[in-house]
Specification:
By secondary structure, the chain is of the alpha/beta class. The chain folds into 2 domains: 24-217 and 340-417, Rossmann fold, CATH 3.40.50; 241-330. The protein contains 17 helices and 11 strands. The strands form 3 sheets. A 6-stranded parallel beta sheet has the order 3-2-1-4-5-6, sandwiched between helices. Helix 1 (33-43) packs across helix 6 and helix 6 (174-197) packs across helix 7.
């Protein structure tokens, strides 16, 4: 692997820009939510040690893949971490992981409850101030993934075009993403409590609870309980005025007028103020309110669609740029990668990264900007890349013990680094 900065090392701008420098987290995880929580912490300066079974985790081969077969999904979720290989099926292997937690930072984030010797109670017996952060699928510990949680929490039945009978799952694993950020938040809250009190903390986050909580917070569940079930509504924005439109030359874009100022700008830009006023009088509607703009969205949208259909995208975008209206053309991922300078190449969030088996491409650092300093995206570790240094240097195991563990298949050394002498 070619690295300008070794994985796990402080990036340029260390200090205020990396506020978690000095925090060590052991991560026993796979797929999206838990790896995302660890990477979120690593981007802010924490040292995150990703524990994998021999040969690497099951998610290392998940699509999308580079031409050489390297998972872009895995590298994206594990940048800047250190990686060790341990046979977790053996008690001796799990003991090594427990030692990393107990003798290191005393923090474990995990998405498995398979092994009681890596659970909160077992680790707390060895280190009373341990912080143990656990992701589950269901609150009772049952299994679930984002796609099954989506199916059971209502959202696919209100997503998609009006009149469609079948559910539409979102391609973005939104509950995994939210759960990952909740895990990171819970971990930091627990660590702060430990710092203040010296006591250990157990944190549990259930993926289904994340979805249900947000459905409640955003009013979907309250609306249903009070007799107002939500229906599919194409690309209209619920409760306000917003929808997709198409220019005369075929450019589709999203437009949203949330505020009174934005709505006024839209009427002024399109010259529809008088027509809309007359329409409001005829319908008994006050289009200065979001409520009535939403209630009569279809007739208002038809007026705007006709206006857009007679103008080119250059004309429309030039006019929109002079207003406070919210808008964006629809772009594909290919569009973004090819020619959008503002969102990718011109954005300090993205910097070139060289990955073994992938090549050089633009990768994001953290969207959290501390003291104005962008974070540097680091390469993801190879399988077991840091096994030798973590167990030998950090944990302090002597060379002879490392040889014995390797010979018995408890751990595996990175081949290119050789065995310790």
């Amino acid at each position: 692997m070619t690295e300008s900065v070794p994985a796990g090392s402080p990036a340029p701008g260390d200090g205020a820009a990396r506020p978690l420098h000095g925090l060590r987290v052991v991560e026993l995880s796979s797929y999206v939510a838990t790896p995302l929580s660890g990477m979120t912490l690593a981007q802010l300066g924490a040292e995150v040690i990703r524990v994998e079974p021999l040969g690497g985790g099951a998610d290392r081969g998940r699509w999308p893949l580079s031409r050489a077969g390297v998972s872009l999904y895995w590298t994206g979720l594990n940048r800047g971490k250190r990686a060790v290989e341990v046979d977790l099926l053996r008690p001796e292997g799990r003991r090594l992981v427990a030692d990393l937690v107990v003798d290191g930072g005393g923090i474990l984030v995990s998405n498995t409850e398979r092994w009681s010797d890596l659970g909160f109670e077992a680790l707390r017996e060895r280190r009373p101030d341990v912080v143990h952060v656990q992701l589950t699928g269901l609150r009772d510990g049952g299994a679930a993934v984002d796609y099954t949680v989506q199916a059971g929490t209502g959202f696919p039945l209100i997503t998609g075009p009006d009149g469609l009978a079948s559910p539409v799952n979102h391609v973005l694993p939104a509950w995994d993403v939210a759960a990952g950020l909740y895990l990171a938040t819970g971990l930091l809250a627990a660590e702060r409590h430990r710092t203040a009190t010296g006591t250990g903390v157990q944190v549990r986050v259930a993926l289904e609870d994340v979805a249900l909580s947000l459905a409640g917070i955003l009013g979907y569940l309250g609306d249903a309980q009070l007799g107002g079930p939500r229906a599919r509504d194409d690309n209209y924005v619920y409760g306000t005025f917003g929808r997709d439109f198409v220019s005369s030359d075929g450019v589709r874009f999203m437009l949203v007028a949330l505020t009174a100022r934005q709505w006024s700008d839209l009427l002024e830009m399109t010259g529809l103020r008088r027509v809309v006023a007359e329409l409001g009088a005829a319908l008994g509607a006050d289009f200065d309110t979001e409520d009535d703009r939403y209630r009569h969205r279809t007739v208002l949208a038809s007026l705007l669609a006709e206006w857009c259909g007679r103008r080119s995208w250059d004309e429309i975008s030039t006019a929109l740029a002079r207003t406070r209206i919210l808008w964006s053309p629809y772009r594909s991922f290919t569009d973004l990668a090819a020619d959008d300078a503002r969102l990718l190449r011109g954005n300090p969030l993205f910097q070139p990264v060289e990955e073994e088996g992938v090549g050089s491409y633009l990768a994001p650092g953290s969207p959290i900007v501390v003291d104005g300093a962008p974070s540097t995206p680091l390469p993801a570790p190879e399988v077991g890349e840091h096994t030798l240094e973590v167990f030998g240097q950090d944990l302090g195991l002597p060379a002879g013990e490392l040889h014995r563990l390797a010979e018995h298949g408890v751990l595996r050394m990175p081949a290119r680094k050789g065995m310790p002498v």
